[in-house]
Amino acid sequence: MSTLTTAVPYTDELAWPEGMRPFQTVDLETQKDPFAHYAWMREHAPVLRTRANGKDVWFISRYDDVRAALRAPKVFSSTVVDPIPLVFLTLFDPPEHNRLRQVVASSFTPKAVAVFEDSVRAYAAEYLDELLAAGGGDVVDGFALRITMATISSLLGVPATDFDQMKYWSDDVSSYFGQVARQAPPTEGAEEGAEEFFAYLLGNIERARRDDNGSVGAHIGRLLQDGVLTEREAKHFCAFLFVAGHETTTVLLANAFREFSENPGLLERIRNTPTDAKAFVEEMARYRGTVQRLSRKTVQDAEVAGVTIPAGDVVILLPGSANRDHNKFDNGDVFDIDRDTSGHLGFGHGIHSCLGQHLARLEGAVGVELIAKKVAAVTARPDNPIQFVTGGNLANTGPSYFPVDLVPVGDAS
């Protein structure tokens, strides 16, 4: 029997444990480490009712419920904002979503991304050697971000000389995209920066097409020339690939250093058995998945865990919580690379499963394998603590700044 909406209490009306403040739609502190809240919600409020801008927002936290919603786009629509402000795959439903995804799907198959392994390995070795020579440093800016920026830029056909400029744009433009998607007022100068970025991308895909350099950028340039994509679609789609292609994997690699600092025995294990790097990446995607929330809007009344969510309401799916559900993963709050991770939602599920998941897995496995090969110890710096991705919407959760001391293999006492 379902619960009437009017009978469902709001988050601040619930008896949260002492010391745990009510879970809110936007909460900078909780975003840093939301997992204790998730555990309580799965047990006591699997469909949590909150308010934002005077409207109800519902959070779904259990594995079976999140997975079912991801498989039901006709009920849980990805078109939360209307009109859709950006040509980002995550904002579209079929059939438009399918049309856009098919444009580049062949460029992100396991076979297609395998050609990048040598370059990813070269980037990783170069950047890690620099950190080791310095005795450590910020592994986000000095390693994780540099690898993912270089890789996605190469994939889009961006010249190596422009990598630094792409890095400069990444933070501001990503923030702007999030503000637009949430219909929040952009920060000063953000819109101008985004337009500058779009103009650059348009010029880049046209250059890549003329050079016929075999990149995804060149492919999109040909589709633009042939009228398959409009100019707006082409430049926005490139921006989506750029943002999605580096943000999530950057955090995954940063979280790898975090896990090695907390569980140093894993370094030796992967050093001795490099193939375990792939299992490490899958478990990290489950345990500390970068994308913690996925926004949907109900097309019709939807019943979830005995609660009826009215049509037209915003629903936030929490794959980061689902991935720790003990009913799916035994001891889900424990990092264990020996576990069966099949079915985890770290790369999404259903029609919106991550387009670049095979590239992310490649970058993650190469990076983790190389870290274990070259690094004997990772030590966090208590006097210069880790900082986390902010934004308060739980979209991405993980380190934005993580300074560590690194001991090279062979130098450990």
TrEMBL record:
Q: Which GO terms describe its biological process?
A: cholesterol catabolic process
State any single GO MF term.
Answer: heme binding
InterPro entries per the record?
Answer: Cyt_P450, Cyt_P450_B, Cyt_P450_CS, Cyt_P450_sf
Q: Which UniProt keywords apply?
A: Heme, Iron, Metal-binding, Monooxygenase, Oxidoreductase
Record field: transmembrane: none
Q: Which family does it belong to?
A: Belongs to the cytochrome P450 family.
Q: Specify the protein name.
A: Cytochrome P450
